[in-house]
Amino acid sequence: SQKIEQNSEALNIQEGKTATLTCNYTNYSPAYLQWYRQDPGRGPVFLLLIRENEKEKRKERLKVTFDTTLKQSLFHITASQPADSATYLCALDGFGNQFYFGTGTSLTVIP
Amino acid sequence: DTAVSQTPKYLVTQMGNDKSIKCEQNLGHDTMYWYKQDSKKFLKIMFSYNNKELIINETVPNRFSPKSPDKAHLNLHINSLELGDSAVYFCASSQTGTYSYEQYFGPGTRLTVT
């Protein structure tokens, strides 16, 4: 079965630094990988999508990389702000519109 | 306007009861989903459904059944509720196609079985 792991359940960083979150997967080779943000008491919100043939994708302060050899995606938030504090989820797009989510990383940006 | 809405937001019920959670999307999407998020915040897909096909996650007990009266609605019906069914249930929708599309999630329904 698909196993998707995200680094450490919780990550604390200082405001202004770059946060790097990791998503590792096994037993599958997805064509697409997505990242979501989830705030307490709310549903996940889509952030970025990257294809297997794309090495990197950027959106404002966000950057995602996708290494299909390592079976890993990295999610970076540059110049982090306290408002970036949330749980971040990676999701693999499987067959038949089946999405498999990672375990999530709770990010806290300390002022 | 809310893109994906769910009702109720909170549901407290006793073991053995049958309950339903309603979901509606106004985005014109063809595919809708139900997810379960447990106490450890792990989000697990239960069903994906479009007007052609229902795909069931094999680990979902058959006490759970999705019902779609039309393309904009996908309700979740649960029979004989158990303590382990306590979780937050999210409905989501997306476009359908060969490409991968972002999912839009509802606000969630917190189900507590006592």
For the record, give the distance between the C-alpha atoms at the N and C termini of chain A, rounded to a whole number.
Answer: 40 Å
Characterize the largest beta sheet of chain B: strand count, sense, and whether it forms a barrel.
7 strands, mixed
Query: What is the CA–CA distance across the termini of chain B?
Result: 34 Å
Q: Which regions of chain A have little confidence, pLDDT < 50, spanning 5+ residues?
A: none
Annotation, overall tally of beta strands of chain A = 11
What is the N-to-C succession of helices and strands of chain B? Answer: EEEEEEEEEEE
Which terms would index this structure?
heterodimer; A: 111 residues; mainly beta; six-stranded mixed β-sheet; five-stranded antiparallel β-sheet; 11 strands; B: 114 residues; seven-stranded mixed β-sheet; four-stranded antiparallel β-sheet; 0% helix; 53% strand; globular
Short account of what is shown:
Chain A is mainly β and 111 residues long. Chain A has no helices and eleven strands. Chain A has strands at 3-6, 10-14, 19-26, 32-38, 45-51, 56-59, 62-67, 72-77, 86-93, 99-101, 105-110.
Question: What's the layout of helices and strands?
Answer:
The complex is a heterodimer of chains A (111) and B (114).
Chain A lengths: L2 E4 L3 E5 L4 E8 L5 E7 L6 E7 L4 E4 L2 E6 L4 E6 L8 E8 L5 E3 L3 E6 L1
Parallel strand pairs in A: 2-11
Antiparallel strand pairs in A: 1-3, 3-8, 4-5, 4-9, 6-7, 7-8, 9-10, 9-11
Chain B lengths: L3 E4 L2 E4 L5 E7 L5 E7 L5 E7 L4 E3 L7 E7 L2 E6 L8 E8 L9 E2 L3 E5 L1
Parallel strand pairs in B: 2-11
Antiparallel strand pairs in B: 1-3, 3-8, 4-5, 4-9, 5-6, 7-8, 9-10, 9-11
